[in-house]
Amino acid sequence: MTPTLLAASPLNPLFVKALQTKYSVIGPMSHDALMAHPDRELIEVIAAGGESKVPASMMDALPALKLISVMGVGYDGVDVGHAIQRGAMVTHTPNVLNDDVADLAIALMLSVTRRIPQAHQFVRAGEWAKGGLPLATKLSGMRLGIVGMGRIGQAIAHRAEAFGMPIAYTARSAKSNLPYTFVADIEALASQVDMLTLITPGGAGTHHMVNAAVLKALGPKGYIVNVARGSVIDEAALVEALQTGVIAGAGLDVFENEPTPLPALLTMDNVVLTPHVGSATDATRQAMADLATANINRHFAGEPLETPVPEC
Ligand code: NAP
Question: I want to staple 46 with a disulfide (CB 3.0 to 4.6 A). Which of 68, 123, 159, 303 is the partner?
Fold first, then answer.
């Protein structure tokens, strides 16, 4: 019999395509529709994306639940504690997206300091013949602070070395194998750098880690780039800091309310925005879909899962 899987939210088409070769995929659907579904009691697997919400109520609707496979490295929308309590495993897709997210972090650093969107618009609008653009800010040599020195943080650091950027970082613990300066306190880190880049998980542990005090410490020549999760920054405090010159600018891929960032961010000249596209290339999304599917295949084959989240 073809196993039925539940999609927690609309899934990436590459994930759906990979799953449909072996499984019947239902959902997303309302709680009531799920409770009434004829296959509900047989469903062992929830397939999810990095931004999916998988609450306890969804898990509890599925008495046979054994696995939640997330196509994404971040899984802050999954109630992992409840999954463990239910005896279900959670998997994600680490490493295969490191390059893309690190590339985007560097792209946002360059875009906001060198004002690339404004320069592009300047040429397109036919302004060039009338005169030059105001000078921009040099990125190479800037002091970089990385918040979160995990897989992607290290990929960002590796790239930043080529830009001659001295690197300091914060994380829950110092990494003795890395040649970068550890600063335990994020406010102290912000006060020592020109560019602060965020690449931690979201969730309660990092909620509003960047607040008004951290932005003040970063200072009027400081920039912030967020490729982590919107929840890591107090977005209202960020808007105020950008409007009042407390910091110089921001490059943002993630927002507290996606897909609707605070309206003020949409019109500010010192902000560059991308719509949560850190891992959004054909090659990487395919690799993520393949890994998320491989974890499901392993579950049904009775083999060890490839990439369980650390809590499991
Ligand atoms: P990772 O290897 O687990 O690294 C996470 C880093 O964050 C670790 O260095 C960890 O510290 C640090 N950290 C965690 N909680 C912290 C806290 N409360 N205070 C300070 N530091 C903390 O994860 P990764 O693979 O690099 O991915 C990081 C995150 O990037 C994901 O969880 C996701 O939210 C985000 N992401 C975004 C996109 C996008 O499209 N923009 C794409 C992929 C990932 P320790 O090392 O000391 O434990």
Answer: 68
> Closest Cα to residue 222, out of 240, 241, 199, 208?
241
303 carries an active-site annotation = no
CA atoms within 13 A on the CB side of 231: 12
- Asked if the model's pLDDT at residue 236 lies above 90, the reply is yes
Cβ proximity of 307 and 291 under 8 Å? yes
- The pocket around ligand 1, CB under 6 angstroms, is made up of 73-74, 94, 97, 101, 148-153, 170-173, 199-202, 205-206, 227-229, 253-254, 276, 278-279
Residue to probe by mutation, ligand 1, list 183, 199, 258, most atoms within 8 Å of CB: 199
CA 40–ligand 1 middle distance (angstroms): 34
pLDDT tens column, 144-173: 999 999 999 999 999 999 999 999 999 999
> What pTM did the predictor assign?
0.96
- Local structure of 158: helix, strand or coil: helix
The pLDDT tens digits of the residues spanning 263-300 come to 999 999 999 999 999 999 999 999 999 999 999 999 99
Burial tier of 244 (Cβ tally within 10 Å: 0-12, 13-18, 19+): exposed
Q: Which residues pair with 54 in a beta bridge?
A: 78
Q: Catalytic one among 127, 258, 303, 311?
A: 258
For residue 259, is the peptide bond before it cis, meaning its omega torsion is within 30 degrees of 0?
A: yes
Ligand 1 atom with least separation from CA of 202: 34
Say yes or no to pLDDT of 1 above 90.
Answer: no
Residue nearest to atom 1 of ligand 1 (CA): 150
